[in-house]
Write a structure and sequence with these properties.
The complex is a heterotrimer of chains A (230), B (223) and C (261).
Chain A lengths: L1 H28 L8 H6 L3 H28 L2 H33 L7 H21 L4 H29 L9 H4 L5 H39 L3
Chain B lengths: L1 H20 L1 H21 L10 H26 L2 H7 L4 H31 L6 H25 L5 H28 L8 H26 L2
Helix pairs in contact in B: 1-5, 2-3, 2-5, 3-5, 3-6, 3-7, 5-6, 5-8, 6-7, 6-8, 7-8
Chain C lengths: L2 H10 L9 E10 L2 E11 L4 E5 L6 H8 L7 E6 L2 E2 L4 H5 L2 E4 L11 H11 L5 H11 L15 H13 L5 E5 L7 H20 L6 E5 L3 H7 L2 E6 L2 E7 L5 H12 L4
Parallel strand pairs in C: 3-8, 3-9, 6-7, 7-8
Antiparallel strand pairs in C: 1-2, 1-4, 4-5, 9-10
Classes of the chains: A mainly alpha (230), B mainly alpha (223), C alpha/beta (261).
């Protein structure tokens, strides 16, 4: 136990180092984007935070779905812990990506919000997982909660791409506002960008491990409580 | 063979009970009618021609009424413990799913058959064409396919009346968007053949989620 | 449990030598951190009528629900007719009949329609004759075209028994079938159950195994070959109570369930 603790601690420190390096890279090392207004140039740097956050939220919800399927197949509580932990991290980073996106949108498009396909899909996704947590909190028996949440998690995740497609077609008159070519990352930006992508993914893994351990501890506390009648 | 035998028995039972009480139909119908009327006042002064918002009104009315009906249908099963009676029987869980799905679908169609002529009269337009009906059929199916599973989930939660729309609407969005888009385009005189993308999205949704529902419904039913 | 309890149980539990119709092995059920059943071991012989007594919250209903395959045990095994319930659920359901305190019937269908619906689910060969037979058995032939909604509680419960027996199950599970009945209706229902348990004992071809959960000691004893007392999710007493009266049994019950409540 103490050895895994030690390992996790070192991994956490490495992850923190990566995050710091990514922040330093994003704010200092990365070159300015060319051809933008001063405001935009500054705001453009959120890309090192915004895109990794968005990627992370998708990754997290994807892991939730896989863990949900694994739970239905094996009925092992561990997978339910992974599913709920990952979904929680996913929701946090969905909010982070939305907030950072707004910070970019204001100088670039002169609005905090627009009903662009990605933004809209993202909002719906956020609502899907809010519903996921509301469902969980409305069920008492843990086995049933895990089962129902797993089923809903699968439906929710599969609906995201269909929603994205439908909103994209729906809004054909709008210019596609965010396009990968729009940013056209220059050579100096790429290393920093990938560094933050790696740092965020590491952060996700570390958070997930801590969160799952927390869930397990909570179960053990409950079991002890039951044994000694509070 | 006996799979459809069971599905038939469940549908027969649901229709039989509904013909007697008209519980589900009446609540759905009244609610759909109310939505249509409320939307009329909500939009009237701000929209140049009401015709422009009719697709939205139709689909929102169907969704609201459908949610009500799904809830009702499952609450009826749950309250007298009759769902447990179903589960005790040596029948495939997915047969129960398709039985309830077909029943829900029939009730929704019944409401649509009554509410659509009223919408046509209120807004002086026609929704009576094979294309319109196909779109309605596909959309209603998608709604019921997902809704039947979620209603079975919601009925077991603490806040069951509130839970169903919260679970259902975000997942339902593609059907709503495609439905509104197609109904609107058809009303504007476009041909269904130009709406292939949208038909595809609905078809993918309908088929995809029927498969997922088929695979997962057993987990929702057991306790 | 103490040593003396274990020896007493060993002395009183007898009929477990032949093949068991129902066998529970180390059955536990937890709802989250709440444990409803803790390691239940139990065998019920074919044709035997077993009655499970116990105070509220003892885990009686949970046990019946697990036997009926409406609820999955957290750990342990249920064997019915030698088959693992978890693995052969679909096959075993055909041989189970359940009467619970909820009627499991549809309010807005008539008595006959209810039975016809379940006859179709169980895919009976000659549903019409069987339905008539069951209606006669529970004395509802005259009311067969009336909606269940118009029935008294006692009639509903009798119809529930007809539903449970419709497919001639080899195992009958009764979960407090007399809940909410007035004394007269309860008496009538009881008569029916006595008749069923006698039939099970006398005719080897009928061989219906009956497990009843109840808190009514008088009624329970009248239909029991053997009794079990469940308290706190554990079996605290198990033994033959055939021929025992309520007066004999009551002190036993009080001792095991413990007046210290």
């Amino acid at each position: 136990m103490s050895r895994t603790n030690g390992l996790l601690m070192s991994a956490t420190i490495v992850c923190a180092g990566l995050m710091l390096a990514a922040a330093f890279g994003a704010l200092v090392l990365a070159p300015n984007a060319v051809g933008l207004t001063p405001d935009e140039t500054f705001a453009q740097r959120i890309i090192y935070f915004h895109v990794p956050s968005a990627w992370l939220s998708m990754l997290a919800f994807g892991i939730t779905t896989i863990a949900s399927i694994a739970y239905l197949v094996t009925a092992r509580r561990f997978w339910d812990s992974v599913a709920v932990s990952s979904a929680e991290i996913g929701i946090v980073f969905t909010l982070a990506a939305t907030a950072s996106g707004s910070l970019w949108a204001k100088p670039a498009w002169n609005t905090w919000w627009t009903w662009d396909p990605r933004l809209t899909t993202y909002t719906i996704m956020f609502l899907l997982y809010v519903a996921y947590f509301m469902l969980r909190s409305a069920l008492e028996d843990p086995a049933r909660r895990a089962r129902f949440a797993a089923v809903y998690g699968i439906f929710a995740f599969l609906s995201v791409p269909i929603t994205f497609m439908s909103i994209r077609w729906w809004r054909t008159i709008h210019p596609i506002l965010i396009d990968s070519k729009d940013f056209g990352l220059s050579r100096g930006m790429l290393p920093v960008f990938f560094l933050s992508l790696i740092a965020f993914t590491a952060l996700y893994v570390i958070l997930l491990i801590y969160r799952v351990r927390l869930e397990r501890t909570r179960e053990q506390v409950d079991a002890l409580r039951e044994r000694f009648g509070y | 063979m006996s799979f459809w035998h069971v599905v038939g028995a469940i549908v027969w039972k649901d229709i039989r009970a509904e013909l007697r009480t008209k519980d589900i139909f009446s609540s759905m119908f009244v609610f759909a009618l109310l939505s249509v009327i409320v939307f009329n006042f909500a939009f009237e002064l701000r929209v140049p021609a009401m015709k422009m918002v009719v697709p939205g009104i139709v689909w929102v009315a169907i969704s609201f009424a459908g949610t009500l009906g799904l809830n009702r249908a499952l609450v009826i099963e749950q309250d007298k413990g009759s769902l447990a009676g179903l589960l005790l029987a040596p029948v495939d869980r997915s047969a129960i799913y398709f039985g309830k799905l077909l029943g829900n679908l029939l009730f929704m169609f019944a409401v649509e058959i009554v509410i659509l002529p009223l919408v046509m009269v209120f807004y002086n337009l026609s929704l009576l064409s094979a294309d319109h009906l196909l779109v309605l059929l596909l959309g209603t199916y998608g709604f019921a396919a997902v809704g039947t599973v979620f209603a079975a989930i919601a009925v077991n939660t603490r806040a069951r009346e509130v839970m169903l729309p919260i679970l259902l609407f975000p997942v339902l969005l593609p059907v709503l968007i495609a439905g509104v888009k197609m109904t609107g385009a058809l009303l504007d005189g476009e041909a269904l053949s130009t709406l292939g993308n949208w038909l595809q999205i609905m078809a993918v949704y309908d088929i995809g989620f029927t498969v997922v529902a088929y695979l997962t419904f057993g987990y929702v039913m057991e306790e | 449990m103490s040593h003396t309890d274990a020896t007493r149980r060993a002395a009183m539990a007898r009929p477990a030598d032949g093949p068991a119709m129902i066998e529970l092995r180390k059955l536990t059920k937890a709802f989250g951190s709440k444990t409803a059943l803790r390691g239940i071991d139990l065998r019920v012989a074919p044709g035997e009528s077993l009655v499970i007594f116990g105070p509220n919250g003892a885990g009686k209903t949970t046990l019946i629900r697990i036997l009926a395959n409406l609820s999955r045990p957290t750990s342990g095994k249920v064997l019915i007719g030698g088959l693992d319930l978890a693995a052969h659920a679909d096959g075993i359901r055909r041989y189970l009949g359940v009467v619970s305190h909820a009627p499991l019937l549809y309010d807005s269908l008539t008595a006959e329609e209810n039975l016809r619906f379940f006859a179709r689910l169980y895919d009976l060969a000659d549903p019409q004759a069987r339905i008539a037979e069951m209606l006669a058995l529970v004395g509802l032939t005259g009311r067969r075209h009336d909606l269940v909604r118009t029935f008294s509680r006692g009639m509903v419960q009798r119809l529930a028994i007809a539903r449970a027996l419709l497919h001639d199950p080899q195992v009958l599970l009764l979960d407090e079938p007399d809940t909410g009945l007035d004394p007269q209706a309860a008496e009538m229902l009881h008569g029916l159950l006595v008749q069923l348990s006698r039939a099970a004992a006398s005719s080897p071809d009928a061989m219906r195994t009956i497990v009843t959960v109840t808190h009514s000691i008088e009624r329970g004893l009248a239909i029991a070959d053997r009794s079990v007392i469940l308290a706190g999710g554990q079996i605290v007493f198990e033994g033959s109570t055939a021929g025992m009266t309520a007066a004999d049994f009551r002190p036993l019950y009080d001792r095991y369930v413990g007046g210290g409540r």
